[in-house]
């Protein structure tokens, strides 16, 4: 995924990192016991299917823990051979996988052929795995350009095809000219409907998986040192996260602008804006200080109100006496 600058381990942004299988299975078990976590468990990478056997263990454990919607993202490099494509999809379905998001486009095509994508789509259909082919595009490289490399029969087996603008962070930010990007997002949107309790390869826990998980600033803990329930509780108490979720990253711009931070430049969407905010430690320091002031002001008002009430009550009692 472009925004993650992903490699076989971790990313160019966060450094090489890989969660041990035991840590992943433990996190899934803990998440299954948290009431606010939904029934979906999604495995992504980089490219998780570099270790297919480990993927199957993760799918099976999520199924055994009661997750009802088990999904994954892959670039389908492993499906170049039709026989292997069929075996991987058969085993994944038996392990509990229900949906597969296939991340592929013009930038993947030098490394993963349209034939592999077609084989993957057909094998998924054969074994009852729903598919979502996700294609990124720029002004020069359209979704149709990528789709033309995949056979029509294979595309007809796909359940959903989605196209969106390249997300200009990470590797895409440095390798694709800005005038090629579609900056068409509604920057007033909020993200409360797309939250995902996300654990990245370092073990850090985030409220979403759309780029903020590649920052240090928006991490609320690490599964290697904290119980997942404790991290979720920390998220629930965070005023900053509450503003971000229900007001969207756009609600934070005015706070930053007051301190001289200019983030008025074009943004592809709110996820891009969120990345711009939280990938800079200075921004996080400003926002944390602002939220602390808000909490103190609110507390002060409550104390004053309570004191005023007590004084009035005492005066009434005194006058009655």
Protein architecture, described:
It is a single chain. This protein is an alpha/beta fold and 321 residues long. The protein contains 12 helices and 7 strands. Helix 2 links the parallel strand 1 and strand 2. The termini are far apart. About 4% of the residues have low confidence.
Main beta-sheet annotation = 5 strands, parallel
What is the chain-wise order of helices and strands? Answer: HEHEHEHEHHEHEEHHHHH
Structural class: alpha/beta
Strand order of the largest sheet: 1-2-3-4-5
Number of helices: 12
The average pLDDT score comes to 86
What low-confidence regions span 5 or more consecutive residues with pLDDT below 50?
304-317
Distance between the termini: 75 Å
* Beta strand %: 5-15%
**Relative helix content:** 40-55%
Q: How many strands in all?
A: 7
Radius of gyration: 23 Å
Anisotropy-based shape: globular
